[in-house]
Amino acid sequence: MTRLRSLMAEGRSLDGRLAGVVDLIARSFVADVCSIYLRLENGDFELVATEGLKQEAIKRTRLARNEGLIGLVSQQARPQNIQDAPHHPRFSYRPETGEDPFTSFLGVPILRFGRVIGVLAVQNVVRRVYDEEDVETLQTIAMVLAEVVTTESKSGSEELADVAVRPNRPQELIGRSLSDGLAMGAVHLHDPVVAPAQFFAKDIGHEEERLKTALEQLRSFVDSMMVQHVSPLGGESRDILETYRMLAYDPSWAARLLDAVSSGLSAEAAVDRARREHRARLENATDSYLRDRLHDLEDLDNRLLRLLAGHEGSVASPDLDGKILVARRLGPADLLEYRNAGLRAIVLEDESTTSHAVIVARALGLPLVGGVDRIMAVVENGDDAIVDGDTGHVHIRPESDLVAVYRDRLLMRSQRLAEFAAIRDLKAVTQDGVHIELMMNAGLSIDVDNLDASGAEGIGLFRTEFQFLVSETLPTRMEQQEFYGRVFETAGDRPVLFRTLDLGGDKLMHGARSTGEENPALGWRSLRLALDKKGLFRRQLRALCRAADGKTLSVMFPLVTTLDEYRAAKEMLEQEFERAKRRGESYPSDLQVGAMIETPAFALSFHELKGEIDFLSIGTNDLHQYFFAVDRDNRMLSDRYPILNKTFLLFLKDICARANACNVPVSICGEAAGNPLMALVFSLLGFRRLSMPVSGVGPVKRAIRRVNLSQIGLKFEAILEKQTSDMEKDLLNLLQEYVQV
Ligand code: PEP
Ligand code: MG
Q1: In whole angstroms, how far apart are CA 536 and each of 224, 562, 563, 707?
Q2: Helix, strand, or coil here: 301?
Q3: Pocket mutation for ligand 1, best pick of 500, 525, 669 (most atoms within 8 Å of C-beta)
Q4: Measured distance CA(270)–CA(540) in Å, rounded
Q5: Taking the CA atoms of the chain, what radius of gyration do you get in angstroms?
Q6: Per-residue pLDDT at 230
Q7: Of 56, 93, 346, 640, which is most buried with the most CB atoms under 10 A?
Q8: Contact predicate 276/257, CB 8 Å
Q9: What is the spatial distance between Cα 595 and Cα 570, in angstroms, rounded to a whole number?
Q10: CA of 663 to the centre of ligand 2 (A)
Q11: Which one, of 326, 346, 374, lies nearest residue 183 by Cα?
Q12: What DSSP designation does 281 have?
């Protein structure tokens, strides 16, 4: 290590230093060949230094990205220790390098932020077994090389002109659009890698002590997490934490770190080396269990690095104004930390864990694209990016003409927003005087804070499960009550329709694993779960009753399937109401009880509840999914069964007519209500109250204020009745002038 350190510090050219390194390694390893390959822009590898091969081959010999054993090291991003190389299926022989056919091969990746930027390899002509220590030493040297090459490339070294150390080409990536909107800005990487301040240990004993102390701190942090955590949905979340703790206490992990320190690395460099390995393996792992564990390990590495650097704690740095947050994944707590940071958009690599992020991003009005495969490998802090939350495109380091296109689109957007702001305080009344009550959907206090600015007349769907989904622990009854109390306070005289817990299915609490059902959307979720977990449900109903204190409390139940389910839930609510009254606690002045129409079974039977129900609200997201038997999140089928389908619209019309006949007000509160074209269609079908995502209120209000329903009513009926029609097209023709920008 000492010799390597002085070699690297020498004032020689980079080529000279690399030549020195291969020479040193070949001698100390007693290897016949030692070579360094670096990755070029096109993904190929170029030989940049060698001891043992012909010197003329340097900067001439190139290997395709997956060629030979060098390609294998790169592909797997981990050391390859091969004793009988000529018989290895990936062996490829390059005579121009003048190499004797060798028997043994040891290659390790040169890694930067988990990306393979090169390969360092030693070879022996005779059969030789490289031991663990050889592998570790070579990895350590590769880490030093990564730093040297990076530093040189940042300073614009001529010798590295072709080498792709830092990703710098424009890249277009496609993910899944999870929250609409458009943004441009510089990238901020969540949980950025803390680079070690120094590589080599000045005092090995001191570094060992630092590492041990940091490990102890880390372990007690993990222990305290275990103590605090409780989940209402079974014990699985505890299992996850238990695994995390096992990893933190894994003696072999600690031993490897300490070994690295005793070989001369600083504590940070030792952890950094482990982190690079985990990251690189993660890049290549496809098995989801293994990926989760590697994620855990990487989290632990990062935490340990932060502890060593002395800044454990908040991940959100103060100055993120105008930045685009890019992360592999975000936990619920992370997201809330970022809520006031001034971010413009969020991009996530993982898709499986994005549901919390979706909730918070939508509430903050931030575009979010999830499932952007391998974005972390191609982006760096400070890169420019464009996030198109409407289409799911993410452009990294975009060309200037693309930037110009998006600038125009952003400008148009802000003009439209100004138009919506101008009609914000006006009601949505059509040209022929029909008032359509526009409400907004909410679930977090950030949404409720938006109520004044939204132009909505109230909250037509308050998704109470959001508080549970974004919380690390189960909210207590008191926490729920305080939260609802704040909602009442902010809403003032405006109505709020609280929807009781809609957990399960795709809405899983932090740390709760799925129940292993084959079809969670058709399974134990929502009201079904609430009626089985009576303690959980009762706590919520009690919190709602107490919070309403002298005001009207409107509560609706999600995913009602049978009339009896509705009746059972209503009875529990009334019991809580009576209990609060009886005990002289705070209670609502009036109780309004409703149900969501989300299943065809309930849609066809709710009228039997006449006299027992105060209001209804159609959740088109779920009703559409169960009507067409199509998973609402299945990308392959997302366009196949449009809502503007004759049978579905006639179904909605029938629901509206039956509700009117029973004198029960009915609204629509799915995402579709926020689409101006669909909102007009719903108004033409007879609906007079729509609740939608806050971003829909302005566009829908403008469309409604432009339309004259009685003038186009007959034409609309004709389209509905037409035997063969491309309904979407006909409706667009009829309504286009009211919805167009
Ligand atoms: C719906 O299903 O339309 C609805 C509003 O509920 P959620 O989207 O929360 O399931
Ligand atoms: Mg629903």
Answers
A1: 25, 21, 22, 46
A2: helix
A3: 669
A4: 49
A5: 31
A6: 42
A7: 346
A8: no
A9: 10
A10: 24
A11: 346
A12: H
At 395, give phi and psi (nearest 5°): -105, 120
* Nearest alpha carbon, ligand 1 atom 9: 463
What is the C-alpha to C-alpha distance for residues 198 and 61, in angstroms, rounded to an integer? Answer: 34
**CA nearest neighbour of 691 among 477, 441, 489:** 441
Q: 529 is written with which tokens? A: 């779960």
CA angle centred on 702, ends 701 and 704, rounded to 5°: 65
What percent of the chain has pLDDT above 90? 52
What is the C-alpha to C-alpha distance for residues 218 and 245, in angstroms, rounded to an integer? 10
Any residues with Cβ below 6 Å from ligand 1, and which? 461, 463, 502, 598, 619-622, 669-670
453 CA from centroid of ligand 2 (Å): 26
Q: Residue 331 has what pLDDT?
A: 60
pLDDT at site 624: 96
Asked if 295 is an active-site residue, the reply is no
Q: From the CA of 672, which ligand is nearest?
A: 1
| Distance from C-alpha of 351 to C-alpha of 324, rounded to nearest angstrom | 18
Torsion angle of C-alpha atoms 672, 619, 446, 457, degrees rounded to 10: 80
Q: Which helix (H) or strand (E) element contains residue 215?
A: helix 204-228
The pTM of this model reads 0.71
Cα–Cα distance for residue pair 231/239, rounded to 1 Å: 11
* Helical (H) or strand (E) element with 646: helix 646-661
pLDDT digits (tens, 9 = 90+) for 605-630: 999 999 999 999 999 999 999 999 99
Tell me the torsion sign for CA atoms 309, 313, 316, 319.
negative
669 part of the active site: yes
Structure tokens of 439?
Answer: 């409400």
Catalytic residue among 278, 295, 356, 395: 356
In the reported structure, the alpha carbon of residue 250 is separated from the centroid of ligand 1 by a whole-number distance in angstroms of 43
Give the Å distance between the CA of 185 and the centre of ligand 1.
Answer: 32
